[in-house]
């Protein structure tokens, strides 16, 4: 299925309507919407949108019966990258690139060949692939068009969390009737932080199962992944994003381990990892991870 958009909007007609429990296979272009692969790093090739406003995303997918107050569970069953990808950094002026002393430099590009479980760039560097979708989300409840760039505490969006590989389930509070889910921004691999502004950007074939849930043990966006339980915080203030992610994880530990809040925080201090999800998207992303198997 596929209709391609570059903004979030509740007013866009769905490309597909499904029932809770259905499995959907989604083809998405890379975040820039390349219609043809680059042959050399940084080569200008035809794009889906000549004046792109945001990520090139597929959807919306309407889920019958979804309404605010529910949670949409996105089960990632299979994620298959395209045969090539790219990474680019610098080429603009912001506080981080100035601090890293690359704001005045030209844009730097890596061109990756993606073969099975390995990516190889033009310099001969090889990396194991761990594909996931950077953008998974629903539009804000307000009408009109909304940017795809920042992640949002409700409904998701540009989350950019590298733990959301196949076998993960992402839980998103529903923001609008029928959910109107958009998917895209395939990443063949990314480090925590997406420090240069892009990952290994690529097209992706994604098989996902969509469910509706009334109750979850914790509020906000969270996930169950092969790496462990994950809670998120998004805010312009890094401290606030960190506190949100950690607070939700402490909530989860209270419920799962039948603890008062103080002992749950103490247990978190011994077991939970705090990570910077991304620093590139106008809003800090932080995630807390309770690693699989850490508690006996």
Automatic annotation (TrEMBL):
Organism for this UniProt entry: Saccharopolyspora mangrovi
Protein name per the record: Acetamidase/formamidase family protein
Lineage: Bacteria, Bacillati, Actinomycetota, Actinomycetes, Pseudonocardiales
InterPro entries referenced in this protein's UniProt entry, alphabetically: FmdA_AmdA
């Amino acid at each position: 299925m596929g209709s391609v958009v570059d903004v979030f909007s509740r007013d866009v007609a769905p490309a597909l309507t499904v029932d809770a429990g259905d499995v959907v296979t989604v083809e998405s272009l890379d975040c820039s919407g390349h219609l043809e692969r680059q042959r050399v790093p940084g080569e200008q090739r035809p794009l889906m949108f000549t004046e792109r406003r945001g990520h090139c995303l597929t959807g919306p997918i309407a889920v019958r019966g979804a309404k605010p107050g529910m949670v949409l569970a996105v089960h990632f069953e299979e994620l298959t990258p395209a045969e090539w990808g790219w990474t680019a950094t610098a080429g603009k002026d912001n506080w981080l690139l100035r601090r890293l002393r690359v704001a005045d430099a030209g844009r730097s590009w890596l061109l990756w060949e993606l073969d099975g479980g390995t990516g190889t760039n033009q310099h001969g560097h090889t990396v194991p692939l761990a594909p996931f979708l950077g953008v998974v989300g629903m539009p804000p409840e307000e009408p009109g068009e909304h940017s795809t760039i920042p992640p949002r505490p409700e409904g998701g969006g540009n989350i950019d969390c590298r733990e959301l590989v196949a076998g993960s389930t992402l839980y998103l509070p529903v923001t609008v009737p029928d959910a109107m889910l958009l998917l895209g921004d395939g990443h063949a691999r990314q480090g925590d932080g997406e420090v240069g502004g892009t990952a290994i950007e690529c097209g992706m074939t994604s098989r996902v199962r969509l469910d509706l849930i009334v109750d979850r043990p914790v509020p906000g966006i969270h996930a169950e992944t092969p790496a462990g339980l994950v809670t998120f915080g998004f805010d312009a203030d890094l401290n606030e994003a960190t506190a949100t992610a950690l607070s939700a994880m402490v909530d989860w530990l209270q419920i799962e381990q039948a603890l008062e809040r103080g002992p749950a925080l103490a247990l978190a201090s011994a077991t939970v990892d705090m990570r910077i999800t991304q620093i590139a998207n106008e809003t800090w992303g932080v995630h807390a991870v309770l690693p699989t198997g850490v508690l006996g």
